Amino acid sequence: MLANAMNALAVAGTAAERYRGAHGHWPSGLSDLVPTQLTQVPLDPFAEGQTLSFVSGPSGAQRLVIYSVGPDRVDDGARPRDPVSGRGDLLYPLD
Length: 95
Description:
This protein has about 100 residues and is of the alpha+beta class. The protein has a single domain (about 1-95), classed as Glycoprotein, Type 4 Pilin, CATH 3.30.700. It is built from one helix and three strands, in the order αβββ. It has one helix spanning about 1-25, and strands at about 55, 65-70, 90-95. A three-stranded antiparallel sheet has the order 1-2-3, with helices on one face. The protein starts with a helix and ends with a strand. About 30% of the residues are buried. The model has no long low-confidence stretch (mean pLDDT about 95).
């Protein structure tokens, strides 16, 4: 399942990069990527029936994070996964 999540993050991240190249700015949400970059927003394998999540950086920042809730199945709001405890989310940061 971890590999599926990482693949979904890479697909969404690549689509966001393509969007940025076409529009000159990051999307305001993953739904902006549909249907021009993606046919649908990828599902989060660790959050049954839910899509990957998205947060942007502070106002004016050119940063975007796409994330999965990860193996602990808790949405930590894009807090990086701690490799020791396993808590936190799987991130795909874009600058």
